[in-house]
Amino acid sequence: MKLPSVTVVGLGCIGGSLATAITPNGGGFVTGWSTSPEDRAMARAANIDVPDVELIQSMSDARLVIIAVPVQAIAEVAAVAMRAAPDDAAIIHCGGVQSRAALGLDEPTYARVIGAHPLAGSHDSGFGASRAELFAGSTVSIESRASAHVRGWMDWLWAQVGAARLDYRSAEEHDAMMAWISHLPQLASTALAATFAAEHIDPGSVGPGARDTTRLAASAFEQWSSLVTAQPEVLDGALTKLERSVAELREALSHDDQRALRKIWDAAREWRRGAEPSA
Fold it and tell me: Which residues lie across from 91 on neighbouring strands?
């Protein structure tokens, strides 16, 4: 696969970072496409080829099509890719959910379009939030139904951009995990920031603790609306358990139960220390 032709549809944080990371490596010829005039202009300024063509034309010579658009737009772009991309092209999407029902894909499209979700990103959006090093050391969750052909492309692509680990799991396993480790943290951060806002706390007066724990709250609603409503039952269960943890903290504090408080605290601290990147 020397100098493969890659089309990246969507030049926001994820798509822009992929296009930016692949281009200087000389690993392939990258074509970018976006509906956003601002993202197109910024990508061109970063030496990414963004031709003035229709979406269907941008994929006609691609050997790898990367769909990096919001979840609610994946089905529309995937339908075009099914018509336009060569028969031997691999087609992937980087969406935060992967099940067919959540994406609204028909059976033939779902059979060909494979989810490959990098666990990396930003609370900012658009090409301005993209970084060539965004995926360095990251984990990518790829659907286990991917063929050997697609897996070969995944090895190539994610090595190009510096990902450290490829995890293969079913779409259902991926979506259940994301409800816990991505969507729940977003909602918790949003709830905390909303509480600060309701109390009229001056955001300019806070320190790193408040800023760090509410970083995700700066994400645009449009980035998350489709994700947090994609699997309400799973997310409702996660929220219920978070509420239970808060209730246990409140109970321990109200009774000055130092033993119970320490038990919660130590379990949380141990988990968080384990989440630190390896040196």
Answer: 65, 113
For CA atoms 174, 218, 222, 113, give the dihedral sign: negative
Q: Which two tokens stand for residue 265?
A: 């605290």
Task: Write the CATH number for 198.
Answer: 1.10.3660.10
What are the pLDDT digits (tens) for 46-66? 989 999 999 999 999 999 999
The count of domains in the chain is 2
Domain membership flag for residue 153: yes
d(CA 81, CA 182): 28
169, 193, 212: which is the final residue of a domain? Answer: 169
Sign of the alpha-carbon torsion through 224, 226, 231, 237: positive
User: Do 193 and 67 sit in the same domain of this protein?
Assistant: no
Query: Structure pTM?
Result: 0.84
Closest C-alpha to 72, from 222, 216, 175, 220: 222
